[in-house]
Every structure is written in structure tokens, then in C-alpha cells.
Design goal:
alpha/beta; Rossmann fold; Trna Endonuclease, Chain: A, domain 1; five-stranded parallel sheet; 15 helices; 13 strands; globular
């Protein structure tokens, strides 16, 4: 098992703090492995195996009719001795009212609790009053480029060769650990995609018009990195002779978000210093999700570079927005406490350098500004703006 230090360090930070630690992300992004990492770390730090309770609540392992009371009692029975117990509960969203059971375990026993899940039941806005103020949410993403390189065996490729592979194949751990060719990799990711769409969305929300729902998903996938609205989707469907209400489109987008398939990036007005509610962008949980649906197309790489940079900023703890500076657009405004950085992403330089630099130079503050590119000859400085190759940007520990 290859350790993902970022998540392990985060869990160590919150260890023995009386909060439920919730790790949430798309299926197969590595949440179960992170729990296994945590278990091994606890054992290394002197916690006895008998005081670590690992439970996995998938439909294959448990009766579909298991209740929160059944969940509570089954764990209670395992805590026969005194002392602190560490509860590692995987895919808890399969149990209705799981948070009620977890809250009771937190209140009634000396426990440190970690849970994972892959859909809306783990979204902070939907956790019931049982856990309000009693949990910390830890988003889990697919592999960063640095992690992807760690997953590869020595000699499998130079950093730039691996970067090209990462851009095309994405960051699902199962892909990084294997030696699949491109077509096989996309077939594996397609299986993950259909599992999410079927189990976490269509079945859970009783969607009956599968064809229409899949057409909307395809529209979102096609338009990654572009601003669009629910109204735009409705107009597009109408042009194809299909009818759907704006409200239904909003629901579909929300359900895709709650299954961690897409992530919403809002616009930030740098002049008015406010978050705007219109013309948002959506990014896919992993670049490979686009290619498994649409096939790989070199013309789509530019948009997926944005996708990769967006998630790298999220992994480093930034809140990420699209920047609006009067009539100019900034790809990303990333904020972390008192820090801020501005990032423009482009595939090639210097053809695009004038526009990218001009947009950044019009921002009249002293926060760091970057242009991130795949152009190997472009690294340098343009009037204080740092120009970095994508690999260098992704492998930086700090900006």
C-alpha cells in the first residue's frame, strides 16, 4: 500500500479531538485506503488492534435493511473493554440515519470516529442536526501529480512523460497502480462513472428518463472550464427537440455535485469584492471522466489543464473562484486565510502570453500572480508575473 501523506497528516492533526472526521469524495478516489493507512498508523503508535474497529457498509457486506440502530448495536457489542476505541466506518451513507448512530457512539462511549462516503449524505449541508458542530469535513480527491509519481515504479518515465500520462489518464489510484493502455484505462474509469451515475444519482433520486439525464451529464462534460447556466442547458436541449425545466436542470447539477462528479467554481468580482451567482464553471472530479465519456481529443487538453490546476489548488486548501476584473477574466483567484494568488492557465506560450499577462497586470495588488503553461521554453518572469511549467506548478509545496 502506498501512503498518501497529505491525508495521513491531516488525520493525525485531528486525532483524539472529539469531532467526527468525515472523508468524502467520488467513488474509488482512495478513501478506503486512507482508512487502512490510518489503521496502520494507529497500530504503529501503540493502539491495540482490539481497540480499532473497522466496518465497511457496502451493499455486498451488509443487509440492505440495516438500520441505524443495528449499526449502533453491532459496534457497541465490539466495545467490550474499557478505554478509547477508534471507529473506522467506511461508506456509511448506505445506512439510513447513520449520523444518528455515530452521534450516539460519540456521546455514549470513549471513541474517536472516522467515516467515509461517496454521495450527498456526506455533504455538510445535509448532515442532520445530530452532528451539527460535531464533525470536520475532509474532502478526498483523486491523486495529485506528486502522488501519481509516487504510485509509479522507478524508471517508468521522466516527470514530463508521467505528466503527459497523468493529463491523459487522470488520477484514479487504480489507474496509477496499473499499466493499462489508454483504452483499457478509460474502460475502467467508465465503470466507475456508471457506478456513480447509477448508484449515487439515478437510483437514489428515482430518475426515470435516463437518456435525458445522460444528455445533460454529457453537456456538462463537454463544457468543462466554460461558463454556462441552467438556462443555457434548457435552450440547448430545446434545440435538440427535448424539453426540461430549469428547476430540473438545477436538480441534476446539484445531484452531480453531491455525488462528487462535478465541482462548482463561482465567480468573484475583484472590483466589488463579492461572489457572483451567475456564469459559474464546473470542473470534473478527474480529467479521465471526460475522456471515458467523450474519448480523448487533443483539442480538449487546454480545458482539462484548468481542471487539473483547479484541483491542485483545492488540495492545498485554497478556496477557488473564477476572477472577474471589470471586463477581464482571471482563470483562478485562490484564497487561503490571509493569502491569495492569481493563476492564468494556457497551453502554449508565447502566442497567448500577451493576453494572459495583460489580464493579471491589471490587478493592482501585490499578491503572487502566475501563468501556468505546458510550454517548456516559457518559464520565467513577465513584469513580476511568474511563468511556470505545469509540472513545476503541480510539484510546488507552496506558492
Amino acid at each position: 500500500m502506498i501512503v498518501r501523506p497529505h491525508y495521513l497528516e491531516m488525520l493525525r492533526t485531528y486525532r483524539d479531538i472529539p469531532l467526527v472526521k468525515i472523508l468524502a469524495g467520488i467513488r474509488r478516489c482512495g478513501k478506503s485506503t486512507i482508512l487502512q493507512m490510518l489503521k496502520e498508523d494507529l497500530l504503529k503508535n501503540g493502539v491495540s488492534a482490539g481497540h480499532i474497529i473497522s466496518m465497511r457498509y457496502t451493499s455486498e457486506d451488509f443487509d440492505d435493511n440495516m438500520t441505524d440502530k443495528d449499526m449502533y448495536n453491532s459496534i457497541k457489542e465490539k466495545m467490550a473493554c474499557g478505554g478509547r476505541y477508534y471507529l473506522l466506518l467506511d461508506e456509511v451513507q448506505e445506512i439510513t440515519n447513520w449520523e444518528k448512530a455515530v452521534n450516539s457512539l460519540l456521546e455514549n462511549f470513549d471513541t474517536d470516529i472516522y467515516v467515509t462516503g461517496s454521495n450527498s449524505k456526506l455533504m455538510s449541508g445535509e448532515i442532520s442536526t445530530y452532528l451539527t458542530g460535531r464533525y470536520i469535513s475532509i474532502p478526498v480527491f483523486t491523486l495529485s501529480f506528486a502522488e501519481y509519481m509516487e504510485f509509479k515504479k522507478p524508471g517508468e518515465g521522466s516527470p514530463k512523460e508521467l505528466l503527459n500520462e497523468y493529463i491523459r489518464m487522470g488520477g484514479f489510484p487504480i489507474i496509477a497502480l496499473s499499466s493499462f493502455d489508454e483504452n483499457t484505462a478509460y474502460q475502467v474509469v467508465e465503470g466507475i462513472y456508471h457506478s456513480v451515475i447509477t448508484n449515487d444519482i439515478t437510483r437514489r433520486h428515482n430518475i426515470t428518463n435516463f437518456a435525458l439525464f445522460h444528455r445533460i451529464v454529457k453537456y456538462v462534460v463537454e463544457n468543462v472550464g466554460k461558463t454556462f447556466s441552467a438556462n443555457a442547458i434548457v435552450k440547448f436541449l430545446k434545440s435538440e427537440g427535448r424539453a426540461l425545466s430549469v428547476e430540473s436542470v438545477y436538480n441534476y447539477l446539484e445531484w452531480l455535485e453531491k455525488a462528487f462528479v462535478i465541482y462548482r467554481c463561482q465567480r468573484y468580482d475583484l472590483q466589488g469584492k463579492s461572489v457572483l451567482k451567475t456564469q459559474e464553471k464546473f470542473y470534473l472530479a478527474d480529467a479521465s471522466l471526460k475522456y471515458c465519456v467523450m474519448g480523448f481529443n487533443a483539442k480538449s487538453v487546454a480545458a482539462m489543464l484548468e481542471n487539473i490546476v483547479y484541483f491542485e489548488l483545492r488540495r492545498k486548501g485554497y478556496e477557488v473562484y473564477i476572477g472577474k476584473n471589470e471586463t477581464k477574466g482571471i482563470d483562478f483567484v485562490a484564497v487561503r486565510r490571509s493569502e491569495r494568488i492569481y493563476v492564468q492557465v494556457c497551453r502554449n506560450m508565447p502566442e497567448e502570453s500577451d493576453r494572459e499577462a495583460a489580464n493579471l497586470l491589471e490587478i493592482k495588488d501585490h499578491y503572487p500572480k502566475y501563468i501556468v503553461t505546458l510550454d517548456e521554453l516559457a518559464a520565467g518572469n513577465i513584469n513580476g508575473i511568474k511563468v511556470l511549467h505545469l509540472a513545476d506548478f503541480l510539484l510546488r509545496s507552496e506558492y
